[in-house]
Each structure stands twice: as C-alpha cells, then as structure tokens.
Amino acid sequence: MAVPKRKHSNARTGSRRAHDHVKKRQIGYCPQCSNAVPTHSICPKCGYYQGRTVIEHEEA
C-alpha cells in the first residue's frame, strides 16, 4: 500500500480545502405570493412551483 513519505504542510492542506466551505442558500421570491423561497423548491405558503400549483394549500 502506498504511504506518504513526508507530512503535508498546513498551508498545502489549507489550499486544498479552500473551496470546501458551505455556501449560502440562494433565495428567490414566489411570483404568486411574493414569499421568500429557496430556489428550486415549492413555495411552502401557496404550493406554487414553475408556473402551476403543485400542492393544494388550505387557508386557515
């Protein structure tokens, strides 16, 4: 089995991990009710997605 001959420095490890950070979720707005909604997801308030009502939502 291959084993590294020398230890990688902290700078080298950090450079490799530079792009591993968690990015913020993109937020769009529902065209039906103008509620803030994560992109590519059904609106939890009105059930609207991609130009049609996907889930029938009851108003309480």
Tell me about this structure.
The chain is an alpha+beta fold. It has a domain at 24-52. The chain contains 1 helix and 4 strands; from the N terminus they run H-E-E-E-E. The protein has one helix at residues 10-16, and strands spanning 27-29, 36-38, 48-49, 52-53. The strands form 2 sheets. It has a two-stranded antiparallel sheet with strand order 1-2. Strand 1 (27-29) and strand 2 form a beta hairpin. The radius of gyration is 22 Å and the shape is rod-shaped. The termini are far apart.
Using the alpha-carbon principal axes, give the shape. Answer: rod-shaped
Helical percentage? 10-25%
Strand order of the largest sheet: 1-2
Helix/strand class: alpha+beta
Give the helix tally: 1
β-sheet strand percentage = 15-25%
Largest sheet: 2 strands, antiparallel
> What is the element string, with H for helices and E for strands?
HEEEE
- Radius of gyration (CA) equals 22 Å
Distance between the termini: 64 Å
The poorly predicted ranges are none
How is the quaternary structure best described?
A: single chain
Number of strands: 4
Whole-number mean pLDDT: 88
Key features?
single chain; 60 residues; 4 strands; two-stranded antiparallel ribbon; 1 helix; alpha+beta
Give a brief outline of the structure.
By secondary structure, this protein is an alpha+beta fold. The chain is 12% helix and 17% strand.
What is the secondary structure topology, with strand pairs?
Blueprint: H1 10-16, E1 27-29, E2 36-38, E3 48-49, E4 52-53
Antiparallel strand pairs: 1-2, 3-4
